[in-house]
Amino acid sequence: LQRLKDHLPPESLGDLGAIESLRVPGKEEFRELREQPSDPQAEQELINSIEQVYFSTDSFDIVKYELEKLPPVLNLQELEEYRDKLKQQQAAVSKKVADLILEKQPAYVKELERVTSLQTGLQLAAVICTNGRRHLNIAKEGFTQASLGLLANQRKRQLLIGLLKSLRTIKTLQRTDVRLSEMLEEEDYPGAIQLCLECQKAASTFKHYSCISELNSKLQDTLEQIEEQLDVALSKICKNFDINHYTKVQQAYRLLGKTQTAMDQLHMHFTQAIHNTVFQVVLGYVELCSGNTDTKFQKLQYKDLCTHVTPDSYIPCLADLCKALWEVMLSYYRTMEWHEKHDNEDTTSASEGSNMETLKSRKKSDYSLNKVNAPILTNTTLNVIRLVGKYMQMMNILKPIAFDVIHFMSQLFDYYLYAIYTFFGRNDSLESTGLGLSSSRLRTTLNRIQESLIDMEVSADPSATLTAAEERKEKVPSPHLSHLVVLTSGDTLYGVFLAEQFEFLQPHLDAVMPAVKKPFLQQFYSQTVSTASELRKPIYWIVAGKAIDYEQMLLLMANVKWDVKEIMSQHNIYVDALLKEFEQFNRRLNEVSKRVRIPLPVSNILWEHCIRLANRTIVEGYANVKKCSNEGRALMQLDFQQFLMKLEKLTDIRPIPDKEFVETYIKAYYLTENDMERWIKEHREYSTKQLTNLVNVCLGSHINKKARQKLLAAIDDIDRPKR
């Protein structure tokens, strides 16, 4: 209003009373406005009639705007009307604002409460964070650093405890020699060996300590010293057998794994004891009779020394000699008694624990049939023997036709021999092995039988010549195996016995044979009967080929990594798998022997074939290697030595067949170029593939390309005559 006064002329100031009533209504007036009856449509029209400029920004000056709108000459009535209009518009707007405020008041109150609650929560969170930070600082200073310190000290404590334990072990190891000496003085040989072996194992664990390096060699020297004392203790058995003493000695040798060495040494000691005993007895009597102790008698041989015994001293000397030898023989008898008792116990425990042709135990019982020399017989063999018996009776009665009977008997034997080979021994793959399983004499005999007796071309052609028909009358069809016989099973074995019976019958046949026909009989025995035993090799080769899963071994060897960078101390698993195959073969052979006796020559051939095939499979597996290092070749040697060591416990076959075949192939890796070329020309027993692999894979690392091509050309020259 003051601004309006300033702009109006003096004469108009008297009319400002009406304008002063234009003011904003208060809170009570708002309530009154809402309580007044209203027409919403009229109120909305009033609001719509308000000029748009009133809804502009806050910087808009309403008073100035209204004053500028006043006319030059003011009319009180018009002003009052305009004032009333503005008041109505103001009242409508105020009422509208009041309605909106009251309408939104609950949401406003609710939102205000939420904001207040949020503010309270934020304040609480701030307090929690502040307290958390304070507690974390306390934990950092008072707990974490102390705990980490405790953990570090505990770790140091554990390390020091381990170090102390190692030091105590090392101290014990270094004092072991004193205890070993005491045990040797007490003749506790098994305990000494056990302690020494345990110390060696512990020393290998602590080999990273420099103080242990010399201890290993010292323990090895001690072990050798124990073996020497064992030998001395073993020699004492020969004259004064003590069961407790001998048991300790045998236990010691068993711990060393040298029981066979102990037996060999024991035999030598008994021989030496016999010689020394009889020599000393005779020498004493010779010196007594001669009246002097000339040393020349001590240099004489025992046979020459005996010539100096006088007739008067002969009987006393012989009596003392018998007494001395009786002591040796008594010790020998007690030693044998000890072995019979303990070997039986070992055999019983071994049979309970496992089923492991050895051959030594099998030799005593000859495969579970005590001492009965029972042959391997089939129904066909028995029938042939029966027929031979009948034919011999006919020869005794009808001697004029004895030659014809023997001739047909020889044909029957020829046919049976040929049938056995056809069924069980014929295999084209055998000849390709180059092992000479079928001897030239056997092949000659079989070819003769085939040409003279077997009708290989059965023909119904009526136009065949009369001569050919007559010749075919003397021949028989080729034999066929019964469908009841299954040759694909590896659980059964077959044998030949008929030839031995014909050898027993030779004197009887010779007695009834006319003199002029005896050369035929001798020829039959020399050319046919004597070659029958040679069927064993090709026949049992097939059995051996099915007894062991050689293909599985090749697959296992193919998975081995041979290009290792360090020398391994553990053999590969294919060795264990192969040994399990041999153990299973051993068990199957035991089962068969319970039903059919297996003669020792047959078992030896079976074992020889299986071992030979296994060794050749090992070489074939090595020849399949794609990459191989020096350490890998050493691993091959380790694997093969492990195989030999375990195999020798399963069989008494000595030497191991084809052992050199594998070892020579492995060692060829270390040959120089010139030596390798000469080696290839000298060792034609290896296949082209095996030689080529040796050059490409094994030697490729230390020879150049030109040298390799030269060696491959040498291999090709060797292989060309075969093609």
General description of the model:
The protein is mainly alpha-helical. It has five domains: 106-232, no CATH class; 258-345, no CATH class; 379-455 and 473-535, no CATH class; 548-667, no CATH class; 671-722, no CATH class. It has 30 helices and two strands. The protein has helices at residues 2-7, 16-20, 27-35, 40-49, 62-69, 76-174, 176-185, 189-205, 210-236, 243-256, 259-290, 302-306, 311-353, 359-365, 379-397, 402-425, 428-432, 440-453, 466-473, 498-512, 518-527, 536-547, 550-558, 573-595, 600-623, 630-647, 659-667, 673-682, 688-698, 705-719; strands at 454-455, 476-477. Helix 16 (402-425) crosses helix 18. It is elongated. InterPro entries: Syndetin_C, VPS50, VPS54_N. Residues 209-236 form a coiled coil. Residues 47-338 form the Vacuolar protein sorting-associated protein 54 N-terminal domain.
Salient structural properties:
mainly alpha; elongated; 2 strands; two-stranded parallel ribbon; 5 domains; disordered N terminus
